[in-house]
Amino acid sequence: MDLSNKKRIVIKLGTSTLAHKTGKLNIRRMTNLVRVLADLQNSGRELILVSSGAVGLGVGKLGLRERPKTTPGKQAAAAVGQCELMHIYDEMFSKYTVTVAQILLTKTIISTPDRVDNVRNAIDELTAMGVIPIVNENDTVAIDELELEIGENDSLSAVVASIAGADLLIIMSDIDGLYSEDPHKNENAQIIHVVEEIDQHIEEIAGGAGSSLGSGGMATKINAAKIATAAGVDMIIMNGKNPDDLYDLFDGKPLGTLFPAQGSLS
Fold this sequence. Notes:
By secondary structure, the chain is α/β, with parallel strands linked by helices. It has 10 helices and 7 strands.
């Protein structure tokens, strides 16, 4: 599939892409990522980011020894971390004269049609101005994501792509894509470059249709693919360790796993 003509693109950035295993910001990777994203924006594409990392940054900013276990503690860390996250993005993107904006959503907002229209209108206006919206769930007041019961950023990014009428959703994580088997258990496992239909077999190799693997698990990415493709949005899962791979992706090189929008291959 030719991705070179994709204009409005939602990119979901997982914590593993933005941070070291220590939980602290991966400055080198994030610096490279912002450079590539700013360049893609300058090329005429409209980018919308869904970014993880607020709670982790809040933990560091508050000097906590570990991630809070209580919901109020997580809410406090998220409130502090959102400020830090946006400050970092604003500072990094400003070096390339790119402006960013913050959009915080809740389940109530994305479940109410007139509020969804307001979100869509805001995204349309921001992208028309050349601004990159940075979206996250409002963890300070919305506890679903914090408690890992309903919300997580993979599915949130698919919802945002649907609301925004995006052409493509890219989920960047610490995995190359969907494999035929668990590559940690079988070194001969093969990456699946295109998934035309999410059937029971795909569900099973992703961890099971009803399993809860937490934020960032393959099962949540398959759920995101269901949402995106049903809304007419192509989706790709790719490794975020080398931000320059985004150039290769739009140059037509086979990277990651592509989930074409329903009907797009017929």
